[in-house]
Structures are given as C-alpha cells and as structure tokens.
Amino acid sequence: MDAITLLRNDHRTVEQLFKRFEKTGDDAYVAKREIVDRIIEELSVHAAIEEQLFYPAARATVPGVEDVALESIEEHHIVKWVLSELDGMPPQDERFDAKVTVLIENVRHHVEEEQDEFFPKVRDELGRKALNELGDAMVEAKATAPTHPHPRAPDTPPANAIIGNVTGVVDRISDNISGLAQGTVSATQDLIARLTNSKKPKTSPTGNSVARKRAQSTRAASAEATDTVANTARRAAKATGDTTRAATSGVKSVAKTAASTTRATANTAKSSAKGAAKSTSTTAKQRSQAPKSSVKATATGARKTAQSAAKATTDAAKKVGD
Ligand SMILES: [Fe+2]
Ligand SMILES: [Fe+2]
To answer: How far does the centroid of ligand 1 lie from the alpha carbon of residue 50, in Å?
Structure first.
C-alpha cells in the first residue's frame, strides 16, 4: 500500500471523528466519551507509525525535510500530552470540551502542514515503488503500535522502535527484548536502505551526519563529564584524607602536650605533696618531740634541784650535829 495514501486515509478518519464530536450535544457524555476514545486510539497508532517509519525514512532519504520532520515530532509531542489528559478525564469535566477543541485545532494544523509541505516532497523523491514498500511496513506496524498516548516515551529511532513495539512485534522479530531492539532497528534500516538503494545506514534510521556528530559529541561530553566528576571526587577524597591526617596529627600533638603538661603538673603536685608531706611530718615530729624534751629538761632540772636541795639539807644537818 502507498505510504502517503495510508497516512491521508488516517487523516480523513480522524477528521470525520472531529466533525462527529463537533456535532454532538453538550450533554451527550456517553457519545463524547466514545468519540474521544476512538480519536485517542487513531491518533496514537497514526503518530507511532509516522515516528517509527515514515519520518525516519523521509529524514534519511529526502533532502530538505529535516525541519518539517522535527517540527512534526514536536507537534505530535504536544498532541500526545492533550490526548493523555483526555484519556483520564470524565466528559462531564468543565475543561473536557475545551481540551478537545484545542486538540482538534492542533491536529488540523499539523495535518495541513504534512499534506501540503511534507508529503509532496517525499512522494517526489521516493516514487511509487518505494512508497508502496514503506506503506506495507506501516500497515504491519499498525498491528502492534500503541493505542494510547505515551508523551514521555521516546519519539525518535532507535528508542521509539524499541519502546513502541514492546508488545506484539516481539513475537515476530525476536523472543527477547534485546533481539526486539536489534530486530526492529535493523528492519527499519533495511527498509530505508532498500528505499534509497544505498548502503545500510550504520547508526540508526535517522543516521545522517548531523545525528552521528551529535551522538559523538554527546558521548565525548559524557566521557569528559565523567572524568571531571571522577577527578573532583579523587581530589576531594585526597583533601579530606590530608585534612583528616593533619587534624589527627594536630590532635595528637595537642594531646601529647596536654599529657606532658599533665605529667609535669602531676610531678609538681607530687613533688609539692611530697615536700609538703615531709615538711608536715618534720614539723609534726618536731612538734611532737618538743613537749617531750621540754618535760625531760624540766625533770632533769627538778632532779638536779632536788639533789642540790637534798645535799644542802644534809650539809646543814651535819653542821647542826657538830
Ligand atoms: Fe503527524
Ligand atoms: Fe499524519
């Protein structure tokens, strides 16, 4: 199937849903919910196959569409946010109708740009055969594309090919996630290579020189940032170690001085105590010895006095007897 015909058919389907919504009565909540649910599904699937296949193939093969492709991806991004809000919002909410109206305005503008500016360039460049091959791949991708909006999910290859097809495609391409990633990206690259009759792109479906340079500069910046962080961490660790060592050394020194001072004080105190004790002891001894010697002296003096008195008395008696 022709890729552009497929996309235009989708646009027509969505426009019919928009018109139905615009004709639905304000209080027809069940009908509004049903229409909006179908809009969400149609736009989610449509955006996915454009982002996974049509935009990457166009960017890789058609000159002069890079800006309109990038702008389209951004418009998809905004639409997905509004869709994700509508997905969980009751139609009775006062903002429901206003949100749908803004969504319709955005999508109509986007569709107009795609159909008037983007698609004609792709058709001119690729031709019928390549567009049929691309369209067949998009039909197949529709079967496994997400049916709900995921505004935070990657919207460019290779990540969107990995995330977007996590269900379904896994059974046909590989039996594990790694195989799915490689298989999906490889399948997209093969398709683009066939479309362009050129060598298979080496990096990704959008692997042009600009993307490659960006990837290289990102890797280089990342490596540089990692080195800077590692070096800073090493310097910080060293500084911390040095500071710790200096602090430890200072503390040791202070502690040593303090210990030395304490010892000196202790020695002084000990010496003083010893001296004081000795002095006290001597004084006490002297004090305790003083009364004793005094008594001894007194006793000696009294004995001598008594002896002298006794001798004097004896002498006097002898003189009286003569
Ligand atoms: Fe689109
Ligand atoms: Fe579209």
So the answer is: 6
Please give the full DSSP string across 33-69, using - where no structure is assigned: HHHHHHHHHHHHHHHHHIIIIIHHHHHHHSTT-HHHH
Sequence-distant (6+) residues with CB within 8 A of 66 are 59, 210
Euclidean distance between CA atoms 135 and 57, whole angstroms: 11
- d(CA 92, CA 100) in angstroms, rounded, equals 13
Contact 189, 195 (CB under 8 A): no
**CA pair distance 14, 38, nearest whole angstrom:** 9
- Cα(110) to centroid(ligand 1), Å: 6
State residue 158 phi and psi, 5-degree precision. Answer: -85, -10
CA distance 158 to 162: 7
Question: Phi-psi region for residue 28, left (φ > 0), alpha (ψ -120 to 50) or beta?
Answer: beta
CA atoms within 13 A on the CB side of 105: 6
> Distance, CA 59 to ligand 1 centroid (Å)?
14
Task: For residue 30, report the distance from its CA to the centre of ligand 1, in Å.
Answer: 28
**Ligand 1 centre distance from Cα of residue 259 (Å):** 82
Per-position pLDDT tens, the chain of length 322: 999 999 999 999 999 999 999 999 999 999 999 999 999 999 999 999 999 999 999 999 999 999 999 999 999 999 999 999 999 899 999 999 999 999 999 999 999 999 999 999 999 999 999 999 999 999 999 999 999 989 888 888 877 776 666 533 433 333 344 444 445 555 666 666 667 664 444 444 434 444 434 444 443 444 444 344 444 444 554 554 554 455 445 434 544 544 454 455 445 445 544 554 454 344 444 444 443 344 344 344 545 644 554 565 446 545 544 4
Q: Is the pTM here over 0.70, yes or no?
A: no
Q: Could you tell me the distance, in angstroms and rounded to a whole number, from the CA of residue 106 to the centre of ligand 1?
A: 11
